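Tokenised fold entry reproduced for everyone:
>
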Amino acid sequence: MARDVEDLEEFRSYRLRMNEQIMGAEHLGIKRFFNLDTAAYREGALNKRTKELLGLVASTVLRCNDCMDYHLNKCVEVGWGDEELHDALNIALVVGGSIVIPHLRHAFETIALLREEQRGSNGNNHNHNHNHDNHKAKT
């Protein structure tokens, strides 16, 4: 199934809309988990940039395409290059084994779409504001 750049924006919109719906349920346990996720990606001993790359590797090993797309978006936003992304995805492949290969295809397609989107923005700062804070909640 071939995807295009519009699919990236549809994914971002869906994620934001559903996170708002989930947070609207006002479930304390869900809010706490979302806050934990947000906190994990804040600056610490590891910088945000490195944490996004780790998120990509973990998401790939777990074979979660939506998670991979999210972290690939973030990795591109924070400046990781294709060679670095490919190297990280290689680690995921080694850890996860051959069952990761279909997800590796998905990741490579997403990277190509993100680069196409970057070229289409003509150097404008394309801030999608789809960071972990989009599901932040007060507990």
User: Anything to note?
Assistant: The chain has one domain: 5-120. Confidence is low (pLDDT under 50) at residues 125-139. The chain is about 70% helix and 0% strand.
